[in-house]
Give the backbone structure.
Amino acid sequence: MAYIDEFGCEYSNDKKKFVRCPENYQGHYTIQEGVTSIEVEAFCGCSSLASVTIPNSVTSIGDGAFYECRGLTSVTIPNSVTSIGRSAFGDCSGLTSVTIPNSVTSIGRSAFRECSRLTSVTIPNSVTSIGESAFGDCSGLTSITIPNSVPSIGEDAFRECSGLTSVTIGNSVTSIGDYAFCGCSSLTSVTIPNSVTSIGDGAFSRCRGLTSITIPNSVTSIGRSAFGDCSGLTSVMIPNSVTSIGGGAFKDCRGLTSIVVGSGNTTYDSRNDCNAIIETATNTLVVGCQATIIPNSVTSIGGGAFKDCRGLTSVTIPNSVTSIGDYAFYYCSGLTSVTIPNSVTSIGESAFDKCSGLNAVAIPN
């Protein structure tokens, strides 16, 4: 049994659950008092819904509850609500503001994804979970503060928030998920707190406006392509705590001229002020930049070490090097010549592929 009101909206028989609003509903709608939950896809596709009043009795907003309500411009979530479901407000492209109350503890996956006109949102201290892609593709969002209550930033959480200029990360965050801030091209600086131990794959990739980054001494791992294509980044300091750096962590950082590893790091070093990251135990150069001078003690150039380093115009490979890894100098389009010493016995797949400016190569017998 169900209860249908005069607008054709469906409730559960006991009027505790709001079940469904007709897709052709237009204008404002007030949910009846006493309702405790807005069910899955309750208003989904109601593109002409302009506004809605949610009573204080509601404790949960279901998955996809307001999905594709593109006429919705603002919403006030009452203090009674504790959870916002997956894609609850996804693709509400007309939504410009939302108030999340202190009662909310979890924001579901893709909860506000593709809310392209959303310019500001306050995440309260009650929130302990920000789901995957929660604010992904919110291109109008300009600033965000992640409270101290949040222990981790989910995968793709703010991906492609191209208008984001300011991010404050709370002191309880221990991990920044894969591609969390990927494509946040307006972000110029970010301070990572001392609580963070891991920076995920592609976490800040394509943040092309990023000019500086401070990696704290708490971080132990930097994921693959974590800062890839951060073309505005000029310097990087790797602290003593880092024990793992993924492939292409700083690929295509064309403006990078200074790379320094802390002198107390036991896994990596930047010996002889070489402006590179060298894996100490194997003497493998794993990350280079346009200003790198390869030391004579390096025995191998790792896979993708200079990948997409388009500002690199010349390189001297010393006689100590015996191998050049796959994609080591891939897409170094500014490189005009290279001499491979007699010590080199192997050159990896696509090591110099896409080096369009390369017109002279000396290969030993």
